[in-house]
Write a structure and sequence with these properties.
Distance between the termini: 40 Å
Number of strands: 9
Helix content: under 10%
Largest sheet: 3 strands, antiparallel
Strand order of the largest sheet: 1-6-5
Order of helices and strands: EEEEEEEEE
Radius of gyration: 12 Å
Strand content: over 45%
């Protein structure tokens, strides 16, 4: 069985350097996390590498946010993969908390 976390398709961004997500750091600032996408899943995309267990990521609008920006987490929902790795999917808005 493949281990990983299923995240919304809108969480995964891509550029010339590959696929990545924006994670919310302990200080509330966004951090770019390169990820490996293992494929599509009925609930989103299976991320098989690059995320730590329990890490919070931006669920959508990541294309409008940048690493280093301070964000406020508006709501979070649990995520998980076939093998149960957990990541928090955060809906973040730019601005000071």
């Amino acid at each position: 069985m493949v281990r990983g976390a299923v995240v919304p398709q809108t969480s995964v961004l891509a550029d010339g350097d590959g696929s990545y997500v924006l994670a919310v750091g302990a200080d509330g600032k966004l951090v770019r996390r390169p990820v490996h996408v293992g494929g599509a899943h009925r609930d989103g995309l299976l991320v098989t590498g690059g995320l730590a267990d329990g890490e919070r990521i931006v669920a959508s609008a990541g294309a409008f946010l940048r690493a280093g920006e301070q964000v406020t987490v508006a709501a979070a929902q649990g995520g998980g993969g076939p093998a149960g790795q957990k990541s928090q999917v955060a809906h973040a808005a730019a601005g000071t908390p």
